[in-house]
């Protein structure tokens, strides 16, 4: 990946694989837009014991994010399963380490979005997405959901919200992401990529 090429950072935490699958669908949407790339990153689990240490590189899937991934992105898609109507602790823990980016205004005027997966239809999808946007607003990011011009929002029987893509994984977390949910993930990625390119150009024009 060229450092000169703008990219959308797709930063997620996933336990059962559904959020990771959604992240890949968003990435496909991003990369369907010429001139921008997707960068998939995850975060390690957190442990209540001080002795637990994860390897520096995961055995499979995306590599762990660092602050530079966030600092240099042109847009951010934040993904998490729900934990009692909020994002999972590992993702919140990572965001809590971004004070230096906030102090320097590194994320101001960059578009951002969120996506989530829940076990049940009313398991907190919308509250999770809404609470995930709070730290992004503190960073000065510009939040972008999914508009109702995406007609799958009107027809879905499972996941899909105007606040961001969502998925219903089922009680055993084994229900795959369905076609309408995939379409909405890709649409969200496309929209984020288009906004990222437009705002990236704007920031370049405003730079001294």
UniProtKB/TrEMBL annotation:
Gene3D superfamilies: 3.40.50.360. It comes from the Bacteria. Keywords: Flavoprotein, FMN. PROSITE patterns: FLAVODOXIN, FLAVODOXIN_LIKE. This is NAD(P)H dehydrogenase (Quinone). Signal peptide: none annotated. Belongs to the WrbA family. InterPro entries: Flavodoxin/NO_synth, Flavodoxin_CS, Flavoprotein-like_sf, Flavoprotein_WrbA-like, FMN_Rdtase-like_dom. It comes from Vreelandella aquamarina. GO terms for molecular function: electron transfer activity; FMN binding; NAD(P)H dehydrogenase (quinone) activity. Its cofactor is FMN. PANTHER family: FLAVODOXIN-RELATED PROTEIN WRBA-RELATED (PTHR30546), FLAVOPROTEIN-LIKE PROTEIN YCP4-RELATED (PTHR30546:SF23). One of its GO terms (cellular component) is membrane. The keyword Disulfide bond does not apply.
């Amino acid at each position: 990946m060229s450092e000169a090429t703008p990219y959308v950072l797709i930063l997620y935490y996933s336990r059962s694989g559904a959020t990771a699958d959604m992240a890949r669908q968003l990435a496909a949407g991003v990369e369907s837009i010429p001139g921008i790339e997707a960068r998939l990153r995850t975060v390690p689990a957190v442990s209540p014991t001080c002795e637990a240490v994860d390897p520096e590189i995961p055995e499979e899937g995306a590599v762990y994010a660092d602050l530079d991934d966030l600092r240099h992105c042109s847009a951010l898609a934040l993904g998490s399963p729900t934990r009692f109507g909020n994002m999972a602790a590992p993702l919140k823990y990572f965001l809590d380490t971004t004070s230096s980016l906030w102090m320097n205004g590194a994320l101001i005027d960059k578009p951002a979005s969120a996506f989530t997966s829940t076990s049940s239809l009313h398991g907190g999808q919308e509250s999770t997405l809404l609470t995930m946007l709070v730290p992004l607003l503190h960073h000065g990011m510009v939040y972008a959901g999914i508009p109702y011009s995406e007609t799958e929002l009107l027809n879905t029987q499972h996941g899909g919200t105007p606040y961001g893509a969502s998925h219903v994984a089922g009680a055993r977390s084994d229900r795959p992401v369905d076609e309408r949910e995939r379409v909405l993930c890709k649409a969200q990625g496309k929209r984020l990529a288009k906004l990222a390119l437009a705002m990236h150009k704007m920031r370049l024009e405003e730079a001294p």
